[in-house]
Amino acid sequence: GEDVEQSLFLSVREGDSSVINCTYTDSSSTYLYWYKQEPGAGLQLLTYIFSNMDMKQDQRLTVLLNKKDKHLSLRIADTQTGDSAIYFCADPKGAAGNKLTFGGGTRVLVKP
Amino acid sequence: GAGVSQTPSNKVTEKGKYVELRCDPISGHTALYWYRQSLGQGPEFLIYFQGTGAADDSGLPNDRFFAVRPEGSVSTLKIQRTERGDSAVYLCASRLDAQEGTPQFFGPGTRLTVL
Predict the structure, then answer these.
(1) Nearest CA in chain A to B106
(2) Which member of A42, A62, A66, A104 has the greatest number of CB atoms within 10 A?
(3) Across the interface, which of A1, A88, A96 has its CB nearest the CB of B100?
(4) Which among B33, B42, B99 has CB closest to A1?
(5) How far is CA B28 from CA A92, B1, B46, B97, in A?
(6) Are B54 and B67 in contact (CB under 8 A)?
(7) How far apart are the first and last CA of chain B?
């Protein structure tokens, strides 16, 4: 969706950290989401952050939110080959955030 | 606990035919969503149901697309007179309720190919 933008591709070595970036335009969003999609599969909810937070950590995942710049990032520590997938950020729109607007996805390739 | 399920997983049809795609949401989830994902893109919203009623169908591309949820659980997305441009993965999601902060959980999708 044109309201949410992500870089297309990220290559990272196993054991390194990955950082996936996302920018959005709707400043009224109260939550922002990260989903993971493996080949041929649906979307798996990874994590989400409330808009009044700057950071949220969940095991190897760290979400950073810069609300002023409308910039969201997902950091994956100690990246594993199983982390190879497409990652989507999603901005909920409409009443109660029922309509998720997705970025185009960032394909992450983890090299051994 | 079962997640969202969708059938069939793959559907190949010919241009002009009618297709139905089915979604079984997570038990107890009152809100149900349909999205369409074209190759190399993120999913795009089509329609969502709160209970039995379509609360927002603003994403349906034209009147060939229709969806129902007659008993407030299973939903069927119906596409009439299919066109090659309808080829995509159709994703269904459900949510405990249509409230801020409750996330949507997705099924594996139905890959539709129109020849």
Answers:
(1) A43
(2) A42
(3) A96
(4) B42
(5) 22, 11, 22, 9
(6) yes
(7) 37
Cα A47 to Cα A19: distance, rounded to the nearest angstrom: 14
**pLDDT tens string for chain B (115 positions)?**
589 999 999 999 999 999 999 999 999 999 999 999 999 999 999 999 999 999 999 999 999 999 999 999 999 999 999 999 999 999 999 999 878 788 999 999 999 999 9
CB B74 within 8 A of CB B88: no
A30/B45 Cβ within 8 A: no
Closest CA to A89 of A65, A73, A107: A73
Q: How many CA atoms lie within 13 A of B64 on its CB side?
A: 13
User: At A82, which amino acid appears?
Assistant: G
Length of chain A: 112
Cα nearest neighbour of B111 on chain A: A40
